[in-house]
Input
Amino acid sequence: MSQVPDSPASAPPPLPEAEVWREGKKIVMYKGGEMPPRCVKTNAPMDRTINKTLYWHHPALTLMLFAGLIPYVIVALVMRKSASVRIPVSNEAMGKRRVHLAIAWAIALGGLAMFGVAIAESNSSNGEMVGVMVIGGIVGILASAIYGIVMTPILTPARIDDHVVMLKGACPEYLDTLRDRPW
Output
């Protein structure tokens, strides 16, 4: 009786028709595999591909933050796995991404403007206003970073190992067109 592998890492060599499949809400593909030529966000015919190098490290490495930011960054850079993928997208999906990028930049510029106002008002007698502007600037810049990280990625890595890439963020219609795990 043949043994069924437990994870994509122990998967057999790729079959041409099994380069890309789904596992739940995730796209799974062998490194170097090609996704079907439909937009991963809308399932419409693709208008272009985005070439991305994605990085991933095991989530447990974030516990290194308790040791400090610098040790975490060093360990994460050493332990991370990478994969180059070609992501098919439509013009509609790219337009939505551009809108989200513009919003993130507008929030960041608003935060910087608040810092500018705080500096200009720093010589005035209204010290309370300066403090509010500085705090508002910090909140604006942090909010823009969080908004950009959450809203602009097309796909994000759920896991990367030596052979397989797992991606999350595709629309359900796109996932429905992929076959389930081929073994």
About this structure: The CA atoms of residues 21 and 178 lie 5 Å apart.
